[in-house]
């Protein structure tokens, strides 16, 4: 499984972009290598240190393949085997479909790395500058709305929580149904227990 994006990027220095992507991975504590790809592009490979690699498989890496086609930049991302630099001649075989490891790519996606890398490339192509991209922030839960203050059903003034009578007009705050005696909610027009009209 791969993800691919195309960018209109006339005059892009693809070697510098490969270096930017590699440096970002290193800042996130990944081991990286940059390899020349067939056709003049670059492959940036990233893998985590030993502990995490054992979960994905020792040789699994995230491949970011960047190639230029005219004024367009093509970026493909997928998981593949870590390439031993001694076997760089085989890089063309490892970039595309047959060598991709879909399960490993799913694990990389869970770590949100592909979206972070695409964000980095988006910013670089848009501004031509090295962006500062950190881990994807986790949105904080929205604060719970403050409970509205209870109001007296007779005069409408705010009343203290737990009060039984209004301290403004003295009306009882716990209204009861005249028919069945069940407690009524403030502002109720009918008893929700027996259906008697109360308002």
Write the layout of secondary structure elements.
Layout: E1 2-8, H1 14-27, E2 31-36, E3 42-47, H2 50-56, E4 60-69, E5 72-81, H3 91-95, H4 102-110, H5 113-127
Q: How many domains make up the 3D coordinates? A: 2
Question: Pairing-aware structural class of the strands and helices?
Answer: alpha+beta
Q: Span from first to last CA?
A: 65 Å
Apparent shape: rod-shaped
H and E order: EHEEHEEHHH
Helix count, per DSSP? 5
Helix content range: 25-40%
Please give the largest β-sheet. Answer: 5 strands, antiparallel
Which sequence of strands runs across the widest sheet?
Answer: 1-5-4-3-2
Counting DSSP E segments of at least 2 residues, the number of strands comes to: 5
- Mean pLDDT across all residues, rounded? 75
* Cα radius of gyration in angstroms: 31 Å
Could you name the ranges where pLDDT drops below 50 across 5 or more consecutive residues? Answer: 88-101, 135-140
Q: Which range does the strand content fall in? A: 15-25%
Question: What characteristics describe this protein?
Answer:
rod-shaped; alpha+beta; 199 residues
Task: Please tell me about this protein's structure.
Helices cover 25% and strands 20% of the residues. The protein starts with a strand and ends in a 72-residue tail after the last helix. The chain has a five-stranded antiparallel sheet with strand order 1-5-4-3-2. The chain folds into two domains: 2-127, no CATH class; 149-199, no CATH class. The chain has helices at residues 14-27, 50-56, 91-95, 102-110, 113-127; strands at residues 2-8, 31-36, 42-47, 60-69, 72-81. The protein is rod-shaped. The chain is an alpha+beta fold.
